[in-house]
Amino acid sequence: MDLKKSNAPVNTTTIDKNLIDQNTGNIYEAISIISKRATQINTDIKKELLEKLDEFATYNDSLEEIFENKEQIEVSKFYERLPKPHALAVQEWLEDKIYHRNTKADTESL
């Protein structure tokens, strides 16, 4: 997932309900799929951020003066400016980039 190339909105936007439930025909199913994808995106972003911030970690138990690390601040600011995971998931859904299938329909056809 390339977060820099995403065209998901950073601010809240209104989206037509018919666009959301177009693929499934059920708004609740579509929102459930989007929320699961948003959880996956959030986990990936959090893991990536923690890996980058771990490079700056100091493992001292003393109470020495804490200094500001400009690189660490820049990394944190970059992740703060990103669109929220739910906005990324909705954008992926609207661009038809999320694979989903209805397992209930699959078992009924057998």
Helix content: 40-55%
Separation of termini? 35 Å
Please write the string of helix (H) and strand (E) elements. Answer: HHHHH
Percentage of β-strand residues = under 5%
Integer average pLDDT: 85
Q: What does the overall shape look like?
A: elongated
Strand elements, count = 0
Assign the structural class, choosing from mainly alpha, mainly beta, alpha/beta, alpha+beta, or little secondary structure.
mainly alpha
Radius of gyration: 19 Å
Helix count from the secondary structure assignment: 5
Q: Could you characterize what this model shows?
A:
It is elongated and about 60 Å long. Helix content is 55%, strand content 0%. The longest helix is centred in the middle third of the chain and has 28 residues, at 27-54. The chain is mainly alpha-helical and 110 residues long. The chain has five helices and no strands. It has helices spanning 17-20, 27-54, 70-81, 85-94, 103-108. Helix 2 (27-54) packs across helix 4.
Produce the secondary structure layout.
Elements (H helix, E strand, L loop, with lengths): L16 H4 L6 H28 L15 H12 L3 H10 L8 H6 L2
